[in-house]
Amino acid sequence: MSKLKSPNRIRDLEERPKKIKEIICFGGGNVIPKVVLEPLKKYQVKIISVTSMTESGGSTGQLGKDFNVLPAGDISRHLVGLSDAPEWKKKLFYLRFGREKFPGGHIGHRFGTVFISLTEYVLGDFKKALKSAHDFMEVRKHKVLPATLNKTQLMAELEDEKIIEGEDEIDVPKKHDSRLKIKRVFLKPKAKAYKPVLEAIKNGDLIVFGPGDLYSSIIPCFLPKGIKKALQRSKAKKVFICSLMTKRGETNKFSVLDFTDEIEKYIGCVLDFVIFNNFFPNKKIKEKYKKENPTLLNFVNFDKSLADNKKFIGANLLPPSRLITHHPNKLAKIILSI
Predict the structure, then answer these.
(1) Do the beta carbons of residue 295 and residue 248 sit within 8 Å?
(2) pLDDT tens-digit profile of 270-279?
(3) Domains (range + CATH), the chain
(4) What is the C-alpha separation between 267 and 13, in angstroms, rounded?
(5) Has residue 110 got a pLDDT over 50?
(6) How many helices and strands (H and E) does the chain possess?
(7) Among 25, 59, 67, 302, which one has the highest count of C-beta atoms within 10 angstroms of its own C-beta?
């Protein structure tokens, strides 16, 4: 006969703090740090943010060519998103300086990208540079990890079988017909996953993909060897946050189901949940936003039958203001409810 637990022992178990949940976030660009990382870090969770390492344009691409270093643009943005540093450090990391012009309208280099790139150049080790950046930006509880430490290029095969090279060309088409669909994306040369990313996937409680550009930001995170298999083996719930609008050259005429199918194809397993916006503001707001962001096309459409499928979570994800962006607090509450 087993011994009964003493009242004190039961009380100890009840009062013991629960394990902090680990959330793994995959993506890149400007969106995730502001609408996912910043709001989630306010809660009792540990966040591990994973970025692709395929940036090839702008300041990041130029620094890579000049100093033979890994791309640090997305890494630097994610560090700001998870930072507990004073505001002046965050502003400093986003500050642009210099007069050099880059495609896409950017002028000068961002301090955060330069900080990491030149630290890698001086120390000769990206991992040491990343540790220095975590320390400077006072990212203690959370982590930002590169999907790979191998130098590689993002490639895309179009529906006419033409191969285009470089994340910057896929992101903003300049040399190819943007009306052509992307058949597949891949890395050249092939790259291996960074081992801490595989460990994070194995131990994570929830895995979040997006939002962001599908082929130039989110999917490149899954391409290094080992990540797809790790995601398939993971017992964590897998959640995809769908973009608000389709993008020229990447997701022309895509629906929520189209986005979902592509993510599932590249991760090699089924998503548990898909969060999408089901509220469309008036035409004037949309046209104004498209004018300011010429690569964006239309709101992502969804089939009404999705309302009957528990996998798909449709909600008004826009802020009360007239901006077309994900509302950070709304997203955080939905993610944490899962």
Answers:
(1) yes
(2) 999 999 999 9
(3) 19-50+199-338 (3.40.50.10680), 54-146 (no CATH)
(4) 38
(5) yes
(6) 14, 14
(7) 25
